[in-house]
Amino acid sequence: MVKYGIKGIAEFAAADDDSIISEPEALPHEVMKMAAGEWGEMSGVLKNAWKDRCVSINQLPVLGVFHVVPPVLVSNLNGHVMQSLTYEFDRFTCLIRQALKSKLQIGDSLKEKTFGKEKFELGDKVWRTFYFNHLLKITIFGEWDSFSRVHRGEIVYKKRMTRVIHIGSKRRLVELFSLNGVCPFTMEDNSRRNAVYCCGGKVVDRSNGSIDRLHHCVK
């Protein structure tokens, strides 16, 4: 690390009384810098040997990847898929509805968040990051390459591993995310005079079964 100017001599300190020197931890970008330095000093023969080795390694099966459906699932594959989708949609619904009812913590309003290429101050908005199950993601948005259930104008930009989508209205949000009669982004709370929460940022107070007035913002 000293050789490539990543760490200084002073950063190597005695670990204890027996004067054994401990190496400071290298960060990922520092490891890459050392690797590039070592690679540049190798002979052509050694570089070719490493390249051949890499080709051989890349031809090995990828560990942890399923290439066939496990036999235990085959007999009732449709049932297991539907059950998995049900569990994941229920989890997603609970997460979103908790966010709709959550209150901002002190200091959250001043936090900055990056959404795609846009950076904004959180203000009175609620921010959530969560894992999307693959089957549920396809069900809602369509296949990854086409996003067939999303309108072309709703895709702000896309990269190999990223899609940024803008959903312009509550009606469209409900249309896109409603499955089997349930939309995670709308909910009723009977404990609060039948209040209806929605991601449009309002709580609607229902009086005598009809929409009475906008009550207050929840998001």
Specify the structural class: alpha+beta
Strand count, sense and barrel status of the largest sheet are:
4 strands, antiparallel
Terminal Cα separation, in Å? 49 Å
**Number of DSSP-assigned strands:** 10
Tell me the helix content.
Answer: 25-40%
Please indicate the percent range of residues in DSSP E strands (runs of 2 or more). Answer: 15-25%
Q: Could you say which overall geometry the principal axes of the C-alpha atoms support?
A: extended
Estimated radius of gyration:
27 Å
Provide the spatial order of strands within the biggest beta sheet.
7-8-9-10
Poorly predicted sequence stretches spanning 5 or more consecutive residues? 201-219
How would the blueprint of this fold be written?
Elements lengths: L12 E2 L6 E2 L5 H14 L2 H15 L12 H4 L2 H25 L10 E4 L2 E4 L12 H8 L13 E5 L2 E4 L4 H8 L8 E4 L5 E4 L4 E5 L2 E7 L3
Antiparallel strand pairs: 1-2, 3-4, 5-6, 7-8, 8-9, 9-10
Description of the structure:
The chain is of the alpha+beta class. The chain has helices at 28-41, 44-58, 71-74, 77-101, 134-141, 170-177, and strands at 13-14, 21-22, 112-115, 118-121, 155-159, 162-165, 186-189, 195-198, 203-207, 210-216. A four-stranded antiparallel beta sheet has the order 7-8-9-10. Strands 1-2 form a two-stranded antiparallel ribbon. The protein starts with 12 loop residues before the first strand and ends with a strand.
Please outline what is shown here:
The protein has helices at 28-41, 44-58, 71-74, 77-101, 134-141, 170-177; strands at residues 13-14, 21-22, 112-115, 118-121, 155-159, 162-165, 186-189, 195-198, 203-207, 210-216.
